[in-house]
Design goal:
Structural class: alpha/beta
Distance between the termini: 35 Å
CATH superfamily of one domain: P-loop containing nucleotide triphosphate hydrolases
Number of helices: 9
CATH class of one domain: Alpha Beta
Strand order of the largest sheet: 6-7-8-3-9-10
Order of helices and strands: EEEHEEHEHHHHEHEHEEH
Strand content: 25-35%
Largest sheet: 6 strands, mixed
CATH topology of one domain: Rossmann fold
Shape: globular
Number of strands: 10
Radius of gyration: 17 Å
């Protein structure tokens, strides 16, 4: 156990505007961190900066002590970061199986059976076109595709958006199972309080690009978290 992902005093912005300023955090092995905040506070910007879609203006991101700051997204994936963007970006004309294969580091590999163990519905539908899946099934698929690269850290940006409550509950259960079985570190940006509290070991609250609160999940309830989020 120890720190896997370290973010040191990063600043990120668009054009002349700064979205994240002097933000630091550390994520431990086998830990799920929920990054909470209202829309426009910097959650998605943070995720994009960690995977390398947005460049850092200053600061450093490191994985297992290795500096990722100047690396392209595909290089960060090879180093052990995986990213599931907001909006469930499946390849709609490929089958479920072909979508997962696209996430493997070698196209000579078969889909690991454990991925179907986490998401049994994907095994049932493995020959179906991904564009024909429901929103919840597509979300399971993009998470499975990200896991296919055997990451050390999984980044999930708003994974519950547009998904029915029963699937949200199942997603929380599966993410904790994945953490326990694979020793994975998971960072999830989220607005749904119940999901964050059911899945997280630690909760961070971001407001106007700065972390304003950090605490273990233990002792936090929806009312307390709601007050921190000013909702």
């Amino acid at each position: 156990m120890g720190t896997v992902l370290k973010v040191d005093h990063i600043a990120v912005g668009y054009g002349r505007g700064e979205v994240l300023g002097d933000l630091s955090l550390a994520a431990e092995q086998n830990e799920i961190i929920a990054i909470m905040g209202l829309n426009g506070m910097g959650k998605s910007t943070l995720m994009k900066a960690l995977i390398g879609i947005l460049p850092l203006r200053s600061g450093k991101v490191s994985l297992d002590g290795k500096d990722l700051s100047g690396k392209q997204p595909f290089e960060r994936v090879l180093d052990g970061l995986a990213y599931v963007p907001q909006g469930r970006m499946v390849f709609p004309n490929l089958t479920v199986e072909e979508n997962i294969i696209a996430g493997l580091k070698s196209d000579r590999e078969d889909v690991p059976e454990e991925l179907y163990g986490f998401f049994p519905v994907l095994k049932e539908m493995r020959k179906r076109k991904a564009g024909n899946l429901s929103g919840g099934q597509q979300q399971q698929l993009v998470i499975a595709r990200a896991l296919a690269s055997k990451p050390k850290v999984l980044l999930l940006d708003e994974p519950t958006e547009g998904i029915q409550p029963s699937i949200i509950k199942e997603l929380a259960r599966v993410l904790k199972q994945i953490r326990d079985l694979k020793g994975l570190t998971i960072l999830v940006s989220e607005q749904v309080l119940s999901f964050a509290l059911s899945v997280a070991d630690r909760v961070l609250v971001i407001e106007r690009g700065k972390l304003i609160h950090e605490s273990p999940r233990t002792g936090l309830d929806e009312a307390t978290l709601g007050r921190l989020l000013s909702i």
